[in-house]
Specification:
By secondary structure, the chain is mostly helical. It has ten helices and no strands.
Length: 257
């Protein structure tokens, strides 16, 4: 039986960790830390490290860019470690994975809420009310924090039966709609990122990456390695070209004199 002070500490951690993820990045938002901390509070740190470490290995190299939503393995580690008190670590890990996947839907809903604060910030900037605009960054963290803390609190209070009931009660049309939204948001995010990059001048590298993935079926790590080599070669070529142009300018200046 989980006691009240344990529920409070774990829920408080679930509320605080998104702030660390968006600011200081001290490691509190890592699933291995979440599993260890939850295990320490519940008196079973070994199981917490097992579940958190397993989820960490599953998500190495996975990050959210351009508005994408990814499985929340931190909440998965918290829930899995808490449920391991009454089940085996392996079974708790199998429950933690669908919980992490389900959190994607809550993250998409959270992003719709935070858009409200973004529009308010834009409004205050246009009115030159910069103090009020900066406050929107503070208010905007609360939807993200609550989207993590509330599910954790409900699971700790109601137990594993609550998870099964929630997953079974969610209508298919809502899940499908959220999946469509989740698929559109990454595309928009990638488009925004490409708009800041010199895509028109470097389009051949974009085509190269597409061919490597679409036709050669190379994994992301291999494509990233090839991209690093190509970027290094392109940089060295640019440096040598600048050096040659510099020498040419110096020679031309001496001739003019």
């Amino acid at each position: 039986m989980i006691e009240g002070w344990q529920i409070f500490l774990i829920t408080l951690y679930a509320f605080i960790q998104p702030t660390d993820q968006s600011s200081f990045n001290l490691g509190m938002s890592m699933p291995i830390f979440a599993g260890w901390f939850t295990g320490m509070v519940l008196g079973n740190p070994e199981t917490g490290l097992f579940i958190g470490g397993s989820l960490t290995l599953m998500t190495l190299g996975v990050a959210t860019y351009g508005g994408t939503s990814i499985p929340d393995t931190v909440v998965g580690a918290i829930v899995g470690t808490a449920l391991a008190l009454n089940t085996t670590p392996e079974l708790a890990l199998s429950i933690a994975i669908p919980v992490a996947l389900f959190m994607i839907q809550l993250d998409i809903l959270r992003r719709y809420v935070t858009i409200y604060y973004q529009h308010r910030a834009d409004k205050y900037v246009a009115e030159r009310k910069y103090d009020l605009a900066m406050r929107q960054n503070i208010w905007g963290i609360f939807p993200k924090a609550l989207s993590r803390a509330v599910p954790v609190l409900l699971v700790l209070i109601l137990g594993p039966q609550f998870i099964d009931q929630v997953l079974a009660a969610v209508p298919a049309w809502l899940v499908n709609g959220l999946k469509v939204s989740g698929g559109i948001i990454p595309v928009v995010g990638i488009g925004i990122l490409l708009s800041y990059l010199p895509t028109a001048q470097k389009y051949m590298f974009l085509i190269l990456g597409f061919l490597l993935v679409a036709y050669l079926k190379l994994p992301m790590l291999a494509v990233a390695g090839i991209g690093l080599v190509v970027a290094g070669a392109d940089y060295m070529y640019a440096v040598r070209l600048d050096q040659k142009l510099g020498v040419a300018r110096n020679v031309g200046g001496e001739v003019d004199e």
